[in-house]
Design a protein that fits this description.
Number of helices: 24
Radius of gyration: 35 Å
Length: about 550
């Protein structure tokens, strides 16, 4: 039995284990026979309501009972009674190569190599059971879905770069402090000197390039050679020639020039920040043969250039995230300018650019203060902060990264709940072909969600690549407009939420129509018999009248 994700190993096995247990309880209690008894009684009552004038009412009632019983018995045997075992050892996940950095592989349920193995180990000795119809439909759904997903070209996961960089925190307090000190002692004085001297002479590319700590222009122009650390740095040994005049601080460390402080091969900030980041993240972004910086850029970059591009992006995201605290929607961190920081400060309605939010905030705060005092005013301000978040930064409501990675959990959970509810759905649906057709299409539709989200993944990444191609660096460009980032956020939410909802709505409508068609087919034999009976009665009446006239 195939599955579409690691999580589906758990939910599929657990769902059919519960299905088997619930079905056994319903059989032992006799509840499974209630729809059949209700069907027989319904036709008997309908026959009696028709009176004796119809003559063949009893025969027609018997035919209806016979037709419905055969249909119900077929549904009960093939779609209700669990016959085939479901075991973890027989389950496997055919992982598609949606990311170009990954290869397709087949993963056994007994050894996934993930944290799911702990939970699966508790279920490894358990077995469920599945009816023949649902086993066939499960196999067909997975086969069609897997073939459809395989037809999608692979893509590089650039849509999650922003979030992954923001998650890779520099938790070393000394390194963070030193970065801030470098910014204060080196970068800020250099930028201030440029403002006084030759800022107007810079090209647009140079103006954009000097916005980060490791600016090549600030190094090559000699500005970083003019300044040095203002406090002793324990990472550097005291140099009598370089640090003349600071002999009293010799025991505490040296005073490196800004150029060395940043670019030294071993103790420079550039190297230390790179070494501190997780190795798998560095390799995927910079050093692998198919690294993301090279694969998403339209310019040829050497290893050191890729490191600088990555560092510039990383420090830009980190600075923006720290500037606004934990409320920052990490998706809105494309720039390192003041606009991006201001855009992220949505939590205070007083600073909102929307007059509606400001007026509503003032009104709510004043009203709450009159009724509840200071506590009420605080509650009002908190409420308006939430409203401001919704209007100004919709990303904060969903946290795009969690959405993209967690939305697919909906599918196995929905399938599990449907499997658990199947015995009751079949009983409440009276084992009719209409119920079976509707449930079958919905079941297939849930499985096919894997393809819908695979399409969303491909579209999201390629749109990200198209809309962030500034300077040929795509998503690794340090600055992009807030408008672009918001467009990408809205599109992402449409792809991962709205689009699947529209699809499920369409699946529900198709299931309803298919159920109606199945119902009409099941009634065809009964209607044909009724038509034949009516026709025979009509012929008999005509013959009787003709015979009477002949005697006259």
């Amino acid at each position: 039995m195939g599955v579409s994700s690691y999580f589906e190993f758990v939910t599929t096995l657990f769902g059919w284990i519960l299905y088997q247990g619930i079905w056994a309880v319903l059989v032992d209690s006799g509840i499974v026979f209630i729809p059949i008894i209700a069907m027989v009684l319904s036709h008997v009552f309908d026959s009696h309501k028709g009176g004796d004038d119809e003559g063949s009412a009893a025969i027609q009632s018997l035919k209806k009972i016979e037709a419905d019983f055969i249909a119900m018995l077929g549904v009960l045997i093939f779609a209700g009674i669990p016959l085939l075992d479901v075991r973890l050892a027989e389950m496997q996940y055919s992982k598609p190569a949606l990311r170009c950095t990954e290869a397709a592989e087949t993963i056994a349920g007994t050894d996934t190599g993930t944290t799911y193995d702990t939970t699966l180990a508790t279920l490894s000795e358990e077995s469920g059971a599945i009816p023949l119809w649902w086993a066939m439909l499960h196999w067909l759904s997975k086969a069609v879905t897997a073939a459809s997903v395989a037809a999608i070209p692979c893509s590089f996961d650039v849509a999650s770069v922003e979030y992954r960089l923001a998650e890779a925190n520099l938790e070393d307090p000394e390194l963070n402090r030193e970065l801030e000190q470098f910014k204060r002692d080196c970068w800020q004085p250099s930028i201030a000197r440029l403002h006084k001297t030759g800022l107007d002479e810079l090209t647009a590319e140079e103006t954009a390039e000097i916005t980060w700590l490791g600016s090549a222009y600030l190094h090559s122009s000699g500005l970083y050679d003019r300044y040095h650390s203002a406090v002793p740095n324990p990472q550097w040994e005291f140099d009598a020639d370089r640090d003349a005049g600071f002999e009293q601080y010799a025991a505490a460390g040296g005073f490196p020039a800004c150029s060395d402080w940043w670019s030294h091969d071993t103790v420079g900030l550039r190297r230390r920040v790179l070494d501190y980041l997780p190795a798998d993240l560095r390799d995927e972004m910079i050093y692998d043969d198919d690294n993301l910086v090279a694969q998403t850029s339209t310019v040829v970059l050497g290893t050191r250039e890729r490191e600088d591009v990555f560092l510039r992006k990383y420090l830009s995201v980190k600075r923006a995230a720290e500037a606004v605290g934990s409320d920052l929607p990490l998706a809105v961190t494309y720039g390192d300018g003041r606009d991006q920081v201001r855009q992220a400060r949505f939590s205070d309605w007083r600073n909102s650019d929307n007059p509606l939010v400001q007026n509503a905030g003032n009104l709510l705060s004043a009203g709450a203060y009159l009724v509840l005092g200071d506590a009420g005013r605080d509650m009002g301000e908190t409420g308006m902060a939430l409203i401001g978040s919704a209007l100004k930064a919709p990303a904060a409501l969903g946290e795009g990264y969690a959405l993209r990675n967690g939305i697919s959990l909906f599918q196995p959970l929905a399938l599990m709940m449907m499997v658990i509810a199947l015995p009751f759905l079949l009983i409440f649906g009276r084992y009719t072909l209409r119920t079976l057709a509707t449930l079958s299409i919905i079941y297939f539709g849930f499985h096919f969600l894997s393809f819908i989200w695979a399409v969303a993944f491909w579209t999201d990444n390629n749109l990200m690549h198209l809309l962030t191609s500034a300077g040929g660096l795509s998503v690794f460009a340090s600055g992009a407009s807030v408008t672009q980032s918001l467009i990408l956020l809205y599109i992402s939410r449409f792809l991962y939420i709205v689009f699947p909802l529209l699809y499920l709505t369409a699946v529900g409508w198709v299931g309803y129509q298919a159920g109606g068609a199945a119902h009409e087919m099941s009634n065809f034999g009964t209607r044909a018999g009724a038509i034949g009976s009516s026709g025979g009665a009509f012929v008999g009446q005509v013959a009787t009248k003709a015979a009477t006239k002949g005697k006259a």
